[in-house]
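quick one, 356 residues, struct below
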Amino acid sequence: MATIEDVAKRAGVSTMTVSRFINESGYVGEKTRARILEAINELNYRTNLIAKSLVTKRTKTLGLVIASIVNPFYPDVVLGVEDESYANGYNVILCNAGGKKKEEEYIQVLLDKYVDGIIFDHLNIGIKQVMELKHSNVNCVLIDNEVEGLSAGNILTDNVLGGFLAVEHLIRLGHKKIAVIHGSLCFNESKPDKKYEETFQFNIWNKRTKGAIEAFEKYGVRVNPNFVLEGDGTSENGVKGGYMAMKRILEFAERPTAIYAQNDLMAVGVINAVHEAGLKVPADFSVIGHDGIPLGEMIFPKLTTIGQPRYEIGRAAAKMLIEMNEKNNSHINMVLKPRLVIRETTCEITKEQAEH
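---
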């Protein structure tokens, strides 16, 4: 393996000059830079990144901590982070918190790896963790963090708008009896099996529910308290949560004609329960989900949903963090908008439904 001394000898310069070139720590003339670069390429010399980081205090590496690696929401976010990082010469270390309060452990692991910054996606990062990172001169960007208003980079998606668009779509199709299935709105210690509730996703369900209620109010449609049900927003139990909530709905004497499931996994569970009962979507129940994960296009009928710009979220987070590092930008708030994606699981209310 070639050494820095080999490069210096091949280029006809001192090892100090090669070191200045590699670490960008001083002036090196253009002709000398060209000779050094040619020698590096000829010898296939690879710099010792750890040694270089001790000089430059940078490793061109970012950490990315996500809530759940099995949740189909995250692959596009991860891809966006990776693409933007790669385009700027950065590597990414991916960490899976898994809803088990592993964020603090990963912070220490990533600090030990001398990362230049960390992105946290849908987690419960608080002032303690942000201050710990600042003390270590490591910037961070928070994506839809449970604790809002922290002095860090923040990427937010407009979940209130998303909930509003979902219910507005159903109302414009003539539906007035609309059920809303949400994840947990508050931590409930009597349900310890819901492990994610300790770390994230109260805000998501509260905001989407708030947006739904705003749509009901704007169009003068009554909210039936019986039609607001808790499902399970976790990746492991989301489909089951939507299925069980729909099973309860099917037992009602008065049924809704449309369902807003606040994530696509719960929407799939709703559709499964409807089909199992010998009924049809959307003829008997219109169903709309939220998030726009690829699964929605793979089922039959294809799922109408509120699409989240997941890839753009990842790219924006990485770009923000890199600019915070390289341009010394202060923390920034960015809000990205969801959009209505109309497919096959919603339709205008039928005459039979309206009469009931």
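The chain has three domains: 4-56, 61-157+309-337, 159-307+341-355.
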